[in-house]
Design goal:
By secondary structure, the protein is mainly α. Helix content is about 70%, strand content about 0%. It is built from 32 helices and no strands. The protein has helices at about 30-35, 40-55, 60-70, 75-110, 115-130, 135-175, 180-185, 185-205, 215-245, 255-265, 270-280, 285-290, 295-320, 320-340, 345-380, 395-415, 420-465, 475-490, 495-540, 545-560, 565-595, 600-620, 620-660, 670-685, 755-760, 780-815, 825-830, 835-845, 855-865, 875-885, 895-905, 910-925. Helix 8 (about 185-205) runs antiparallel to helix 9. The longest helix has about 50 residues, at about 420-465. It starts with about 30 loop residues before the first helix and ends with a helix.
Length: about 950
């Protein structure tokens, strides 16, 4: 243990005294900011600063707090700095607002306000950053807008008043062409309309904003007033003078020609036109002679020039071109001054009509152009005020702005320009064009990205080409090239200039990568064309070699799977390859079909019998149909029997030949004769004996007849040995002769077991042998006899059904008349009705009616499983319950014959007859 000694008091080391606790003095601005400087965390400090800012402190306090706080916590000082910036902006905006408010007050205080100046004030104030949404600029903006609206309304009303003056003048002019009494009747109404027009015109000129109207509108209104008053002041005295002349014959006539002629006619005087005609007739022909003649060339030239100028004016007027129509009208007037005296009255009337239309168009064009401009301004302003979710994209906005500016240019061509509307339209278009600028920036950025992606793809293709230059997997190479092509097409949009730069680089890289594949495809094409030539040679050969065709097709498939080609080109090559082979197979099939369709003697017999059966089917006679069926079956069986007879004769001839060959050589001539007879019987199928031939000098060896045997005809096998049946034999064949069989070499069992099976010849040896049906029928004859037999069976079934219905009708008639002689026979009723059942039915009909048939009918409906009428369903259910308790009684299906007899013994009525008919339809068929 080491002792613990306390430190010596005389030690040189200084003594460490504990430091006193540090006291935190509050910040001088803590009381002002609510303890923000003494907050423990930055979040708490920012919260207290926000609370302090909500009390709206003075700017000096804000500056002092920001100065102290920015060095400690910049996050908390950000809110103070934003408040200071807001105060500075507010001071700057107040100065700007005061400046633009003074300008607006000056515009409103001016006696004449220019619309363009008002619109320019709003635009310039917005550009300068003036707070137009705050007072007092918002109020001044509204006042200026109202003032501009009032001025525009005055201008529009001037146009309306001008048009109304034109319409009033036209009404007065039309009345001057009608009888004077119509004009006199409409005088008061016209006086009221003219007075109202003058009042409205006086209101326009007396408006406080009339001085601000554009300079071109007051002259228009004054001209309309002057024109209307001139016409009105001439019309009133003319009407009064016409009324006075109508009352007093000595009164002077009015200056209106129509009214004057009307009054002359009323007074019995000739009209002015008739008097002028008479005066001209009585006047001198010398005057007419004195008129100088004009050359036809001059007249034709004058007409041509006037017509050209007139056509130009009418075209410009129809298209609504105000400026062009004014120029064309001036040109037409200049032509008239020179050549007007050489044109006829009809052409002169057309010229005046066109000039009037052009004058009206010139006045209307300005007003209609302003309407079009206002619509364009509204459309331009609505581009940025579309509903949510329906904002236009960049390209659509660009096209819309281009169309709007083109329409504005067209409107300027048809009328005088409107600078105020143009400024509004231009501002709206510039504001909407910001969307287009943002879209264009996005397009440029995307184009740069797409260019970089395409360059990277080109480098990737070059690297891939170097890596797979020695590869032999042409399918994988072709797949990769297609994938590179898809990636290039989906590489995004780039400009035409950039694409023109990148496209040659891409073509060069992809051509380098596809060069090995193209070389392999070229070699593959040569090989395929060679195989097409081989296929053509195989198809043209007289005998089609199936093995060679299969080998050639396998080579083609291997080539197609190794080297891929363009799908369309490969399909064309395949069609050219398979065409000669298909033609060869078609020729082979045609030859086979031709051989099949050639009719033999047996086929003709069967075809004739089939046609006879079809004819019998058409007659509808059952006896003829059955006879024709028997004839067809006889034709089929007769051919088989003939073939069997021929085979039997061949066997007999063979046995006779063998017997003659085994006899003694004492009679060589007889043997020779027998051998010849056997040979003739085997070859020709004839059983007659041959005529004796002359005996030769040297005896000939006995010729063995050619007999068809069943044996193994494979090379190297014994033909006289029977063929061992394999797995493909019939179920009745045994496999005893197969070498190596366990039971084949053993022989029969000595105990006698299974002997009977061995005698039967197998599992199915007890059934009779197949009947020899002779040679096979041709396809045509086989189909004809099969269809004829099917049609005959259907016809017989149909006739049987008809006979069954007739028998049932006869039975119901016999019940109704209670005549037993009318009951059909058992053959007509069918196999279900025996003789005893028919006798019971005849006895029931022979006796007097008795009993009730209700229960018997219910049993019959149960036996036939036929529905029961609704009124008898309860009785049927009750009978079914009773039958369940009678276990030993026969079922209704066993006693339906006796139930029918009970029904026939009762009285006949329509309801029971219908129920009996329904059940017998089913029961007689069983």
């Amino acid at each position: 243990m080491f002792p613990f000694f306390s430190r010596s008091k005389m030690s040189d080391a200084p003594e460490v005294n504990p430091a006193p606790a540090k006291t935190h003095e509050p910040h001088p601005l803590d009381a002002l900011t609510g303890g923000a400087f003494s907050a423990a965390t930055s979040g708490e400090r920012a919260s207290r600063i926000r609370d302090w800012l909500a009390t709206q402190p003075a700017p000096e306090q804000l500056q002092e707090v920001f100065k102290e706080l920015s060095g400690r916590d910049k996050g908390a000082a950000r809110a103070v700095r934003e408040r200071l910036d807001e105060i500075r902006r507010a001071k700057g905006q107040e100065a700007i607002a005061a400046e633009w408010a003074d300008k607006a007050q000056a515009l409103l205080a001016a006696p004449k306000l220019n619309i363009a100046d008002a619109l320019a004030w709003q635009r310039d104030a917005a550009k300068a950053g003036a707070p137009l949404s705050r007072e007092p600029l918002s109020l001044l903006k509204v006042q200026l807008a109202d003032r501009v609206k009032v001025i525009e309304d005055l201008q529009h009303r001037v146009q309306v008043q001008r048009e109304a003056a034109v319409l009033l003048a036209q009404r007065i002019e039309v009345l001057s062409t009608k009888p004077w009494r119509d004009a006199h009747a409409a005088l008061e109404l016209l006086r009221a309309d003219v007075a109202r027009w003058q009042e409205q015109a006086q209101e326009l000129t007396g408006d406080a904003s009339w001085a601000s109207v554009e300079a071109r509108f007051p002259p228009l209104l004054d001209a309309s007033r002057t024109q209307l008053l001139v016409v009105w002041e001439a019309f009133q005295p003319a009407v009064a003078q016409a009324a006075a002349a109508a009352e007093d014959v000595s009164a002077p006539l009015p200056p209106v020609p129509v009214w004057a002629d009307e009054l002359r006619t009323a007074r019995g005087l000739p009209t002015e036109a008739a008097a002028a005609a008479a005066a001209s007739a009585a006047a001198s022909k010398p005057a007419r002679v004195a008129k100088p003649k004009v050359a036809p060339e001059v007249i034709e030239k004058a007409h041509q020039l006037v017509r050209d100028a007139l056509a130009t004016l009418e075209k410009e007027t129809a298209e609504g071109h105000g400026k062009a129509s004014a120029g064309a009208a001036a040109a037409l007037r200049a032509v008239l001054k020179v050549h007007g005296k050489h044109i006829d009255n009809a052409l002169e009337q057309q010229v005046h009509t066109a000039l009037v239309a052009a004058g009206e168009l010139e006045g209307w064009q300005r007003w209609s152009a302003d309407q079009v401009r206002e619509d364009l301004v509204a459309k331009a302003e609505a581009l940025l005020n579309r509903p949510e979710g329906q904002a236009l994209g960049g390209r659509k906005m660009q096209e819309t702005l281009r169309n709007l500016r083109d329409q504005w240019k067209q409107a300027d061509q048809g009328g005088a320009p409107n600078h105020a509307l143009w400024k509004k339209f231009d501002e709206a278009c510039n504001a909407a064009h910001k969307v287009v600028e943002a879209w264009l920036d996005k397009i440029r950025t995307e184009a740069a990205e797409h260019k970089a992606q395409r360059l990277a793809l080109i480098e990737e293709v070059k690297a891939w080409a170097q890596e797979h230059a020695a590869s032999g997997d042409w399918k994988a190479i072709n797949r990769s090239l297609y994938q590179f092509g898809d990636r290039w097409r989906e590489g995004g949009h780039v400009g035409e200039k950039i694409f023109a730069e990148l496209q040659p680089l891409w073509k060069q890289a992809i051509a380098l990568a596809a060069a090995p594949l193209e070389a392999a495809q070229k070699e593959s094409l040569a090989r395929r064309h060679a195989m097409i030539d081989e296929a053509t040679a195989l198809g043209a050969a007289p005998a089609l070699r199936i093995d060679a065709v299969k080998a050639l097709q396998q080579r083609w498939q291997a080539e197609a799977q190794t080297v891929p080609l363009d799908r369309k080109h490969e399909q064309k090559l395949w069609d050219a390859f398979r065409k000669p082979i298909d033609e060869a197979f078609n020729r082979k099939s045609a030859d086979r079909d031709r051989a099949v369709t050639e009719l033999s003697a047996r086929d003709r017999v069967v075809l004739d019998a089939s046609k006879a059966l079809e004819a019998a089917n058409a007659t509808g006679d059952a006896q003829q149909i059955r006879a024709a069926m028997q004839a067809l079956e006889a034709a089929l069986r007769g051919q088989a029997q003939a073939a069997e007879a021929v085979a039997t004769a061949n066997k007999d001839a063979q046995s006779n030949a063998e017997a003659q060959a085994n006899a003694a050589p004492a009679a060589p001539a007889a043997t020779e004769i027998a051998a010849e007879a056997s040979a003739e019987a085997a070859e020709g199928g004839d059983t007659a004996a041959a005529a004796p031939a002359p005996t030769p000098a040297t005896p000939k060896p006995v010729a063995r007849p050619v007999v068809a045997v069943r044996g193994d005809d494979r090379p190297g096998m014994k033909k006289d040995a029977p063929v061992a049946p394999g797995r493909g034999a019939r179920p009745g064949d045994r496999r005893d002769g197969r070498p190596g069989d366990r039971d084949g070499a053993r022989g029969p069992r000595s105990d006698g077991r299974m002997g009977d099976r061995a005698d039967r010849g197998g599992r199915f040896g007890d059934r009779p042998a197949f009947e020899d049906r002779g040679p096979r029928l041709g396809d045509t004859a086989f189909r004809a006899q099969r269809e004829a037999m099917e049609h005959a069976q259907l016809a017989l079934k149909k006739l049987a059904a008809q006979a069954h219905g007739e028998a049932l009708t006869q039975l119901l008639t016999a019940w109704e008349k209670r005549d037993a002689t009318l009951v059909p026979g058992t053959q007509d009723l069918g196999s279900g009705v025996t003789a005893s059942v028919r006798n019971a039915w005849t006895q029931a009909l022979s006796a007097a009616p008795k009993g009730d048939a209700a229960e018997a009918l219910l049993r019959l409906e149960m036996a036939a499983e036929a529905p029961t009428p609704a009124e008898h369903i309860a009785a049927r259910r009750m009978l079914q319950l009773q039958l369940l308790t009678r276990r030993n009684d026969p079922a209704p299906t066993q006693t339906w014959g006796q139930d029918v007899a009970r029904v026939l013994a009762s009285n006949s009525d329509a309801a029971n007859a219908r129920r009996l008919q329904n059940v017998l339809k089913t029961l007689l068929r069983k």
